[in-house]
Amino acid sequence: MSRTDILVTAGELAELIARDRPVHVLDVRWQLTEPDGREAYTRGHVPGAVYVSLDDELSDHGVTGRGRHPLPSGSSLQQAARRWGLRSGVPTVVYDDWNRAGSARAWWVLTAAGITDVKILDGGLPAWTAQGGELEKGWTTVAPGDVTVRFDDLYHGALPTLSAEELADFGGVLIDARAPERFRGEVEPVDPVAGHIPGARNAPSTDLLASDGTFVSESQLRKYFAQLDDADVGVYCGSGVTAAVAVAALYAKGQAAALFPGSWSQWSGDPSRPVATGE
């Protein structure tokens, strides 16, 4: 994959819509402090965009022992994707309004399920409005789609993953995409234990974004991840959401990376697992 396989600009999306080219647009607004984005969606969204709930449709809280945001099954995702109107052969653009977390999660989940041509709106909703894009209010409904999910088990789907057990023998570089103070164990606002997985390196997902919320340039990504060239890379965060931002950034620079979906919430939930603090 390359940058153009992962990201689409607001101008490119506007051109597709203006030319009446077939494209699905999904609004995946989610924040740690405001996980339900429905109200924000109804106040204004990209015209034609369908709301997607990260907590309810891109996660399966019926699964235990796999962290705060376990991956959904392929069958449940296919039902949701058809509700969103996704059709085979039609590209999909996903966006959010907070640090690319929601859109990166959607990109990862849909791609891992085997759905092709899914791209993140670079810069999110702010990029859309900054280039003059209009907003539509209310709730958008669409006709059911026909998209088919190829993998029912997303933990073994089209994108690589790491399990907690596999991390014990992982010989590559493990990246922790959380904020530095959480990595060091100085604060932990969500999970019961503070710290990080021993041996992990901190690379906050926000470091990968410019001041306007777009991903930094390809040259900057290459420089930032220079020490990872030719290495096997695994990425985790608090619950597998913002780690997807780092995974997307690595793919955008042409390097594959495996996601640990359960992330720190799964790792720290087992008291027998070791915990490190500090740098």
Automatic annotation (TrEMBL):
InterPro entries registered for this protein in UniProt: Rhodanese-like_dom, Rhodanese-like_dom_sf, Thiosulphate_STrfase_CS, TST/MPST-like
Domain Rhodanese: 19-137, 168-276
Alphabetized UniProt keyword annotations: Repeat, Transferase
A GO term for molecular function: thiosulfate-cyanide sulfurtransferase activity
Annotated CDD domains: TST_Repeat_1 (cd01448)
PANTHER family, A to Z: SULFURTRANSFERASE, THIOSULFATE SULFERTANSFERASE
Protein name: Thiosulfate sulfurtransferase
